Amino acid sequence: MASIEVERPAGGPAHRNRHPHLAWASPAERDPDLIEAVSEAAAFRAARDRAHSDRVAPDRMSGFLTGGSFAAALAVWQLVSPAASIPLGLLAACIVAHALAASIEFEIGPGTAVPTTPVLYVSLFLLPPQLVPLVALAGLVAAAVLARLRDHDRHERLSVLAGSSWHAMGPAVVFALLSPRGLGPEALAVYGLALAAQFVCDAVASWVRNCYGLGVSGHRLVAALRFTFLADLALAPVGIAAAAAAPGSAGALLFLAGPTVLLLMLQRDREHHIDRAVVLSEAFTQSADRARRDVLTGLRNRLAWEEAIALNSARQVPVGVVLADVDGLKATNDELGHDAGDRLLAAIARVIAEATPSEGGAMAARLGGDEFGILLPGSLAGRTAKIAQALQRSLSGTTGTSDGPPISASIGFGIARNGSALASAFVEADRGVYDDKASRAIGRR
Predict the structure, then answer these.
(1) Is 328 found in the same domain as 267?
(2) Which DSSP helix (H) or strand (E) runs through 413?
(3) DSSP codes joined into one string, 280-337
(4) Measured between alpha carbons, how far apart are the two ends of the chain, in Å?
(5) Are 248 and 348 found together in one domain?
(6) What per-residue confidence (pLDDT) applies to 9?
(7) 262 and 306 co-located in one domain
(8) Is residue 401 packed enough to be buried (19+ CB in 10 Å), middle (13-18) or exposed (0-12)?
(9) Quick one: pLDDT at residue 444?
């Protein structure tokens, strides 16, 4: 199988747990298999979205390195040792067969794998070795064109496809040097060497494209290549046997029709199950998110806050806490009605959300009634005082709704040197809230 990266960088969640709250949720949500299933489904969804995005995946020129080096190696080979003859009929048949096989995409890890190995080995017997890498490239390009015709949102760059053709270069070089024929022990040893060369070329090109260029973890790449290489081990003998059954004839490709159709059926079934897993995962994630979202303000609720506290209490990093207690909510409810009180809370929640950093695991939550909180873990803890002061300034400069009172809140903050000291940070922050209210002669409610 050729491993193809279709503009799917790993900066997203594919290699990280996108649902850290699950580890601190209900017993069912803490199930490791469930967490893994949700993360994998999210990775599939993210990869599909990126494959349909017209934005080019940011990398470190890995597409140019893999695709450019393949094109250069192929060109040099043609110039130094050109094929004595080009059997156009066999060449066209191999390209068509390769394109059909490459249209069967198995979603794995950071990209896809296509079952082209049987066609590759038949091509090695039917064509001069110099032409076989060209068959791989032309087949992948033709398959990409067919995919674009079926799905106009697909985006695949030629450099990426060329880089994905490196898997064919190793076996072609081995066949050019050793010219194996038949099924004797010596020939079988050469076929094994060709398969090993295929693995090396595929692994190196995949590492450059994914790990060096896109930041995919080595663990993720190894898991994806394990699937690819095991499939190649099973499929390569099919191609060799087909070539031996019809030596020198394009009819050898017909022997691949049955296995190819079977692989297509398996791929469709796998795709169907992935589709269902993605839908179920998204429904589960949305349900879990709603359970942790305050309906009125859109901020996180008490459940999400307590889970975040539990998570950070076990970490040996500093944690900052900012608490805000809305001023005059009870008076607003009594004098203007609860609708006005709800608008007051929503207005303050917007200010708090804007004051909360968007990075580093920061969280803004409505703790209940007129109480709000901001959690600032890790490096953000050092900004706790500035964030609290900025929040106070923002609240004092906000006039509130046209039919309601000006909004304000009493602010307090505390910093814990690590998670185990969070309780003291809450005491410090709560004391700050009382002191702020006292300094402005405002009652707790």
Answers:
(1) no
(2) strand 409-416
(3) HHHHHHHHHHHHTB-TTT-SB-HHHHHHHHHHHHTSSS-EEEEEEEETTHHHHHHHH-
(4) 67
(5) no
(6) 35
(7) no
(8) middle
(9) 46
Write out the two tokens for 89.
Answer: 């009929």
Q: What is the pLDDT of residue 237?
A: 95
Distance from C-alpha of 67 to C-alpha of 30, rounded to nearest angstrom: 43
Among the listed residues 323, 115, 122, 380, the one whose alpha carbon sits nearest the alpha carbon of residue 235:
115
79 burial via Cβ count (<10 Å: 0-12, 13-18, 19+): exposed
**Paired strand residues for 410:** 325
Please give the pLDDT value at position 109. 61
Total tally of structural domains belonging to the chain: 2
Taking the C-alpha atoms of residue 181 and residue 300, their distance in angstroms, rounded to an integer, is 68
Could you give the CA distance from residue 201 to residue 54 in angstroms, rounded to a whole number? 29
Q: How far is CA 176 from CA 128, 180, 205, 238, in A?
A: 8, 9, 21, 21
From 258, 287, 316, the end of a domain falls on 287
Same domain, 200 and 85: yes
Domain that holds residue 334: 302-439
Mean pLDDT by 10 residues, the chain (445 residues): 46 35 48 67 66 57 88 95 93 96 83 90 96 96 91 80 94 95 91 96 90 81 88 94 94 94 91 82 79 90 91 90 89 84 90 90 92 93 93 73 70 92 92 87 54
Which amino acid would we find at residue 349?
A
> In this structure, is residue 267 part of a structural domain?
yes
Contacts 24+ apart (CB under 8 A), 279-283: 280/41, 281/37, 281/38, 281/41, 281/42, 281/45, 282/41, 282/45
> Could you give the residue ranges of the DSSP H alpha helices within 2-113?
32-51, 62-80, 88-102
DSSP state of 361: T
Give the integer Cα–Cα distance in Å for 50 and 8.
Answer: 6
Q: Look up tokens 């130094």; give the residue.
A: 80
Q: Is 27 domain-assigned?
A: yes
The count of other CB atoms within 10 Å of the CB of residue 398 is 14
Q: Which pair of tokens denotes residue 10?
A: 């790993």
Q: Is residue 297 part of a domain?
A: no
Amino acid at 337: G
Q: What is the pTM of this model?
A: 0.65
- CA quadruple 345, 346, 349, 351: dihedral positive or negative? negative
Residue closest to 295 by CA, chosen among 356, 345, 359, 361: 345
- Residue 172 tokens read as 């072609």
Other CB atoms within 10 A of residue 178 CB? 16
Same domain as 318, residue 394 = yes
